[in-house]
Design goal:
- Strand 7 and strand 8 form a beta hairpin.
- It contains 32 helices and 33 strands.
- Helix 26 crosses helix 28, helix 29 packs across helix 30 and helix 30 packs antiparallel against helix 32.
- It starts with 9 loop residues before the first helix and ends in a 6-residue tail after the last strand.
Length: about 900
């Protein structure tokens, strides 16, 4: 895939990076952005970069053209020389004839921006510096103001009453506040406000005094829910914090944030209220912009992720989830390296990323990551740290690009080039490639040895081809004709294949000539010389050898079959004919796969044929149908068949009938089947479950309970909800472990057979299971007595009844248990009027860990336990279900059974 090319004009570059600086290879300033000129009016073109700037990160005492490239690919901090120093943060990118600095000033407050007489239009739209400064500035002011007011209120609470002098002092503090401040009586009527509140609302103090906050600010666009919340707080004498659209006197509105606090006397009674009214219009607009930017990032086709200062993921877009196969819940709070790195991830690249992130520097690299299903893929990663106004790292922003196809294609090109060079170097043909100006571009070792040229092939590059031809002409029987023919061939520029030439020493060569074009332009000529002397003699003796071995093949006890590259039978000996039931005449000319293979065997055959086409030999077993239709098993040992030129023209296989051996193996498999099943389930149990898993779960649950008890009044509702979610997950894990233990015990526990009254079993299950009041569980017909294991029957009915009860969504739930008696078995039924099960899930519900409901505590083990118990008794289970109507489970158990 070709690299994308971007072209920026001067105005475009200035629009995107208004603080850019372009310098040439000698570190001379060639141009700079308009905003750069505004903050440094002394800056001039064609002056040395070091005249104006000092590089402080990484610190460079002496910046020269020779060491300047060491500043690439990292965060750069510059300061201007002089009294009013300017600090800039950014990075250098190498250009064709110099270096480009892109970044922005590093201001710590809006006051610095104002001092430089900068406006919003002087910054790029994507530059978040001003937004961050505004937000932090407002937050600091609000915190200080609120702190001052709270300190004042705390002092007031300690006093028995608020005298007039203290009220005047408080009024002076509130008057100086840039946000609106009002004092009200307990019922909400305003008796004092500052000038900022008059300015915000457009009303005069006389128009405000005596009215409530609601009367002053309510309008058609105001959020009634927030207003009612404030009214309720006044009524209860509680603090409040509300936001709604506040009206102005002169047809206008602003988004207000109103924080109110009651002032209490020594008895805890409300004396009065004070409230701060803040205009948060700008902050809300920025929040909406952030939402818009988040939406853009979400819809980005490339994966995007944001992580905290410790590298833990806080947010990813859908492209990231689609590429990695993880869900949002699985990636949040995880480190990308822990989640995505694998065995082939390059350790040097990992160290580079860790070092860049540790130092808060931008990073750009290519790395192998792994999906959730452990499929590796290549990504190009570009990221940088986001800093607060003090330069501390707040978050990391990373964009990834899936370059797996690009890497694969590049690797294929490299491998192809290497193979081609290796092939040419090791060809048994002499190769010479000359340019259209008759200069040698490439020659291999074989060419030199054919004509006894005592020189390294690399030395011959660039020499004149005519000189080489004259030098070797005496090796040919007719030297003059040799040179003439070369001249004719070059003039005609037509392909010549395997033209025979004779040498004076008796050798015979085949010469091939191919003109090479790039598009319509002639790029050169390829000459190939191959010594075919031995090949010619080989052809003469081939027939004699073939006749000798034909007699051996015909009398072999094993079947021999030769097919061409299209699977057409070319040769079959008598033993193969007897094995297959066909005569040799019936076999020749037909496709072997069509005569013998069924649908199951064809896939194996095609895989082995592919190996043969790659030059590999193999042995394998395959099921075939002979002429009579009878199924046989053959052991085939096959190898590729080559012609005299070393080309694969088909394959040869030796066939042995192993049908009787396969029958014996099948009998052996049946005898070992029970043992294999038991071993498999033992391994499954050993890997899946350990009793020690429950201990840390209990510790987690205890720790959460202690934390909640110790901090009951400190945590807000959201934090308590998070703890409840953790407790639910711990409970689900406990249920999951318990379910796995029960699942493993189905086969591993020693069976105790006794006569069991199933009515007693079911009644006991109903007592144990939590059954809601609106659900009725009834036994429609007295159940039979079975000679079986009590534990397994308890598990079977308890899981089925519990499953039915849990998924009833009707106001009046009903579960009915009944059975039908047949000659050899009982068929039990558990019917409910619950949610029902979609047909596409019905085949999977008995698989381990398969749960298709929204129930948080569902483990997907209960029905797997039921299925395993029934299989243990050679029984059967099936369901009939309609979504929205209900489900009936049918269980067939033999009257006289033994373990499977």
């Amino acid at each position: 895939m070709a690299d994308l090319q971007f072209t920026f004009t001067g105005p475009t570059l200035n629009h995107i990076f208004p603080f850019y600086i372009l310098i040439d290879e000698n570190l001379t300033i060639k141009s700079f952005g308009n905003s750069m000129a505004k903050i440094m009016p002394e800056l001039e073109e064609d002056k040395s970069f070091t005249t104006y700037f000092t590089i402080v990160r990484p610190f460079k005492d002496n910046v020269t053209p020779e060491n300047f490239k060491s500043l690439l690919n990292q965060l750069i901090v510059l300061t201007s020389k002089g009294f009013n120093a300017i600090t800039l943060r950014g990075q250098f990118e190498q250009q064709a004839n110099g270096f480009l600095f892109i970044g922005s000033p590093w201001f710590m407050s809006l006051e610095e921006v104002d001092n430089k007489k900068l406006e919003a239009t002087d910054f790029a739209y994507h530059d978040s510096l001003l937004d961050i400064l505004h937000v932090l500035n407002n937050q600091e002011k609000n915190n200080n103001e609120l702190k001052n007011l709270i300190e004042t209120i705390d002092k007031q609470r300690k006093q028995l009453k608020i005298d007039k002098d203290e009220l005047n002092k408080l009024s002076l503090v509130a008057s100086a506040n840039k946000n609106g401040v009002v004092f009200t009586y307990p019922q909400g009527d305003i008796f004092w406000c500052n000038e900022a509140f008059e300015y915000l609302t457009g009303f005069s103090k006389d128009e405000i005094i005596g009215k409530s906050l609601i009367e002053v600010g309510r309008g058609k666009l105001s959020n009634k829910k927030e207003i009612y919340k404030m009214i309720d707080a006044f009524y209860k004498g509680e603090a409040f914090d509300v936001e709604y659209i506040h009206t102005k006197k002169q047809k206008g509105t602003f988004r207000s944030k109103i924080t109110g606090q009651p002032i209490l006397d020594s008895r805890g009674l409300v004396l009065q209220y004070f409230a701060i009214i803040e205009d948060v219009t700008l902050e809300k607009e920025r929040e909406e912009q952030l939402v818009l930017l988040s939406s853009i990032a979400e819809k980005n086709s490339n994966p995007v992720l944001i992580s905290d200062k410790d590298g833990k993921i806080e947010w990813v877009n859908s492209s990231f989830l689609e590429l990695t196969e993880y869900s949002l819940e699985e990636v949040i709070k995880q480190r990308p390296d822990v989640l995505l790195h694998g065995p082939e991830t390059d350790s040097k690249t990992i160290n580079y990323l860790n070092e860049q992130i540790k130092n808060g520097l931008p990073f750009y690299c290519e790395i192998i990551n792994y999906t959730k299903s452990k499929q590796k893929y290549w990504v190009r990663i570009q990221g940088q740290a986001l800093h607060d106004e003090y330069g501390k790292i707040k978050k990391y922003f990373t964009i990834q690009e899936d370059i797996s196809f690009e890497k694969e294609f590049s690797q294929q090109l490299i491998e192809s080039e290497n193979r081609l060079n290796t092939l040419i170097a090791n060809l048994q043909s002499g190769i010479l490639f000359e340019s259209d100006h008759n200069k040698i571009l490439l020659v291999n070792t074989k060419f030199c040895s054919l004509f006894e040229i005592d020189a390294d092939p690399e030395v011959l590059k660039g020499l004149d081809c005519e000189m080489i031809a004259v030098g070797v002409k005496d090796y040919f029987k007719n030297p003059d004709q040799f040179l003439t023919r070369i001249k004719e061939t070059l003039e005609q520029k037509e392909i010549v294949i395997a033209e025979v030439v004779e040498l004076t020493d008796g050798r015979i060569l085949e010469r091939t000539f191919i003109p090479i074009y790039k598009g319509e332009r002639l790029d050169g000529y390829l000459w190939s010389y191959e010594d075919v002397t031995i090949k010619k003699k080989y052809r003469e003796s081939l027939e004699a050898e073939r006749e000798k071995y034909s007699n051996i093949i015909a009398n072999m006890n094993m079947g021999l079959l030769e097919v061409d590259s299209h699977d057409i039978i070319k040769l079959a000996n008598q033993s193969f004919a007897e094995m297959s039931g066909y005569t040799t005449d019936e076999l020749l000319g037909h496709k072997a796969s069509e005569l013998f293979l069924n649908e199951q065997s064809i896939a194996i055959f095609e895989e082995k044929i592919k190996d043969r086409s790659d030059g590999l030999s193999n042995s394998y077993e395959i099921a075939v149908n002979i002429k009579t239709g009878e199924e046989k098993h053959w052991l085939i040992s096959g190898a590729p068949n080559y012609n005299v030129n070393g080309e694969i023209i088909g394959s040869i296989g030796i066939h042995l009938d192993i049908t009787e051996q396969k029958k014996l193996e099948h009998q052996k498999e049946q005898l070992l089947k029970r043992l294999e099943i038991q071993n498999e389930r033992l391994n499954e149990y050993a890997h899946m479950v350990s009793h020690d898993l429950k201990s840390p779960l209990r510790s987690i649950h205890a720790l959460i309970t202690w934390i909640k008890e110790d901090n009951e009044k400190l945590f807000n509702k959201e934090t308590n909800r998070y703890f409840e979610l953790i407790e639910d997950k711990v409970e689900k894990m406990d249920n999951l472990i318990q379910g796995i233990l029960m699942y493993s015990k189905v086969d591993s526990s020693k069976e105790i057979t006794e006569k069991i009254d199933l009515n007693e079993i079911v009644e006991n299950c109903i007592t144990i299971i939590h059954i809601p009041e609106h659900v009725a569980v009834t036994i429609k017909k007295k159940l039979p007595t079975l000679e079986t294991d009590r534990f397994r029957m308890q598990q079977l009915f308890q899981n089925l009844i519990s499953n039915a009860v849990n998924y009833i969504d009707k106001k009046e739930g009903l579960v009915e248990i009944s059975y039908v008696e047949n000659a050899k078995d009982y068929v039990f039924s558990i019917k409910d009027n619950g949610q029902g099960i979609d047909t596409k899930y019905q085949a999977k519900i008995f698989d381990l860990f398969q749960s298709f409901s929204d129930e948080e505590k569902a483990t997907g083990i209960g029905l797997a336990i039921v299925k395993r118990i029934i299989n243990n008794y050679n029984g059967d289970i099936w369901i009939e279900s309609t979504v929205g109507v209900g489900t009936t489970f049918f269980i067939k158990l033999p009257k006289h059974h033994g373990k499977a």
